[in-house]
Structure to design on (492 residues):
C-alpha cells in the first residue's frame, strides 16, 4: 500500500502506477455528477456538442452536495458520496469519451466500469460513506455550477479541491476490483461461519 | 417557561447534539476498531470516519449529509404534567432544528413524492411512547439514516428452525447488506412478539450503549456469538475488507405465538446517532448521553 498525492490534470501514466489498496489525495479540479449529469454529458457528446469544460485528467465525484449561497458565493456545506453502482450504466462511455482519470464514490462499481478503467486508464477511489464534513472541508472553492436546471443534487458542480481524500483505490487500471475480491472472500467465509454456528 | 416551550428547546438541543456528536460509547468502539483493524483499506476508512467525527464535533456540523428520519422515544412519568403537549412540541422542535442545525429535509410523501421541506409529515417525526412511574419526562432522539434502514430485514422463520434459523438469518442479512449500510454497523436483533413487535424491539435495541452488557447471560452469549460471526465475514469498514463489519450486536426478545418465530434485524450505520435528556418537574434538565455546559 502506498500513498499518492495527485494533481489534476492527472496523466494516464500516473494512473497506471496505482494499485488497489493504495491511498490517494487529489488537488485540483473535480466535478460532481450523479445519474442525470452523466446522462446529459453523454447526450451532448453524442450530438457532437462540447461540454462546459474539458474533463480530461479530472476527477468525477458521485455526490449530491448540500450547497448554500453566501454573498453571491456558493459554499459546499456537506458533500458525502452517493452509491456508485447506479452510474455503472454510464461510466464506461463517460471514461472513454471524456478521459476522466478518477471516479469517486462509495460501494464500488461493476465489471463494465472495471473493464473501461483498464482499457482507457482510470481508477475508482472509494470515499468513506457519510464523511460529509471531511469532504466539504477539502473543497476550497466552487468554480461554477453547470446544468442547475437538474436540481441542486443532480447539477454538475465544478470545484477546486485540496488534498481531497483519503480515497482507497478500489478499482485500478489493471482490472483489479477490491470490492469483488472482498465479495468472493465473504462468500467463502459464509460457509465457515455456518459450520461454526452449527447451521 | 411552559412545559411545551421547555420540551421544544430541549428537543432542538438534542437533535443538534445527536447529529454533530456521537455518544462516547460509539466513539470508543470506533477507536477500538481502528486500533485492532488489520486490513489496510479498513484502517484508512476508520481513520477517515474518526477524523470526520472529530471535525463535525469541533465545527458543530452534521457528521453525515443524511441526517435521517427523526424518531423520538419518550418515557412519560405517569404523574408528569401536560404530557398531552409533548407531541406538538416535538414536532415543532423538529421543524425548528431543520432550519437551525440545519438538518436535511427527509420527509417525503410516498404517494406524491413531495418533500415537506421541514422533516415533518404524517407520522413523522414518529414518537414511541412509554408511560413509566414518577413525574419526569425522558426524551431520546434517534435520527435514522436511509442507507442502513434499507437493509433492515424481517423473517418469519419456521419455529422448527429455532435459534439456528435466527443465527443464519442474521448472518445472511449482514452478508447481503455488504457495503451498503456504511459499516462498521450496529445490529439490533429481536425475536418473538409478532412481525411489528420484533422490528420495534430490534430498533429500540440500537439505543442500548455498546459498553453496557446485556443483563441476561443467555442473550449476552448470543450477542457475542453473532458479533463474532458478523466480524468473520470479512466485509470490513465500508465493505473494503477487514475485521470490523459490526461494532456491536444488541439482542432483545418477546414471547411468541407457538406457530410464529419472527426475527427482525435493525441495522445502524457507523454514524450511530442518539441523544437523551431527562426533564424534572422543577424544569431542571439532565442530559444523559452528551456533556452539556
Amino acid at each position: 500500500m502506498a500513498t499518492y498525492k495527485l494533481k489534476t490534470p492527472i496523466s494516464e501514466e500516473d494512473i497506471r502506477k496505482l494499485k488497489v489498496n493504495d491511498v490517494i489525495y487529489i488537488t485540483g479540479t473535480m466535478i460532481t455528477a450523479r445519474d442525470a449529469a452523466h446522462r446529459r454529458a453523454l447526450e451532448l457528446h453524442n450530438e457532437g456538442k462540447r461540454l462546459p469544460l474539458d474533463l480530461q485528467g479530472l476527477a468525477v465525484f458521485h455526490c449530491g452536495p448540500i450547497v448554500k449561497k453566501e454573498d453571491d458565493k456558493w459554499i459546499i456545506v456537506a458533500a458525502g458520496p452517493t452509491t456508485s453502482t447506479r452510474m455503472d450504466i454510464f461510466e464506461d462511455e463517460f471514461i472513454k469519451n471524456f478521459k476522466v482519470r478518477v471516479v469517486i464514490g462509495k460501494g464500488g462499481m461493476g465489471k463494465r466500469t472495471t473493464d473501461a478503467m483498464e482499457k482507457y486508464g482510470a481508477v475508482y477511489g472509494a470515499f468513506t460513506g457519510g464523511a460529509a464534513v471531511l469532504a466539504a472541508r477539502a473543497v476550497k472553492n466552487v468554480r461554477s455550477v453547470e446544468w442547475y436546471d437538474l436540481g441542486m443534487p443532480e447539477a454538475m458542480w465544478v470545484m477546486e479541491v485540496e488534498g481531497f481524500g483519503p480515497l482507497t483505490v478500489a478499482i485500478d487500471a489493471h482490472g483489479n476490483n477490491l470490492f469483488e475480491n472482498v465479495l468472493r472472500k465473504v462468500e467463502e467465509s459464509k460457509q465457515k461461519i455456518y459450520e461454526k454456528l452449527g447451521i | 417557561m411552559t412545559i411545551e416551550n421547555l420540551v421544544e428547546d430541549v428537543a432542538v438541543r438534542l437533535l443538534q447534539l445527536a447529529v454533530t456528536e456521537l455518544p462516547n460509547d460509539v466513539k470508543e468502539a470506533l477507536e477500538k476498531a481502528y486500533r485492532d483493524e488489520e486490513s489496510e483499506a479498513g484502517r484508512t476508512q476508520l481513520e477517515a470516519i474518526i477524523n470526520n467525527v472529530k471535525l463535525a464535533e469541533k465545527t458543530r456540523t452534521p457528521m453525515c449529509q443524511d441526517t435521517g428520519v427523526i424518531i423520538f422515544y419518550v418515557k412519560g412519568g405517569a404523574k408528569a404534567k401536560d404530557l398531552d403537549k409533548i407531541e406538538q412540541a416535538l414536532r415543532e422542535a423538529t421543524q425548528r432544528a431543520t432550519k437551525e442545525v440545519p438538518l436535511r429535509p427527509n420527509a417525503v410523501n410516498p404517494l406524491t413524492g413531495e418533500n415537506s421541506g421541514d422533516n415533518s409529515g404524517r407520522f413523522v417525526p414518529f414518537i414511541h411512547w412509554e408511560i413509566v412511574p414518577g413525574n419526569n419526562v425522558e426524551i431520546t432522539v434517534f435520527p435514522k439514516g436511509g442507507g442502513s434502514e434499507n437493509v433492515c430485514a424481517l423473517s418469519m422463520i419456521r419455529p422448527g428452525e429455532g435459534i439456528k434459523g435466527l443465527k443464519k438469518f442474521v448472518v445472511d442479512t449482514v452478508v447481503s447488506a455488504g457495503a451498503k449500510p456504511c459499516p462498521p454497523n450496529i445490529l439490533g436483533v429481536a425475536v418473538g412478539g409478532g412481525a411489528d413487535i420484533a422490528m420495534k424491539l430490534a430498533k429500540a435495541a440500537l439505543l442500548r450503549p455498546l459498553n453496557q452488557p446485556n443483563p441476561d447471560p443467555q442473550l449476552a452469549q448470543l450477542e457475542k456469538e453473532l458479533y463474532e460471526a458478523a466480524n468473520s465475514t470479512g466485509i470490513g469498514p465500508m465493505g473494503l475488507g477487514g475485521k470490523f463489519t459490526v461494532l456491536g450486536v444488541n439482542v432483545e426478545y418477546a414471547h411468541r405465538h407457538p406457530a410464529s418465530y419472527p426475527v427482525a434485524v435493525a441495522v445502524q450505520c457507523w454514524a450511530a446517532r442518539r441523544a437523551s435528556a431527562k426533564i424534572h418537574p422543577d424544569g431542571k434538565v439532565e442530559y444523559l448521553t452528551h456533556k452539556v455546559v
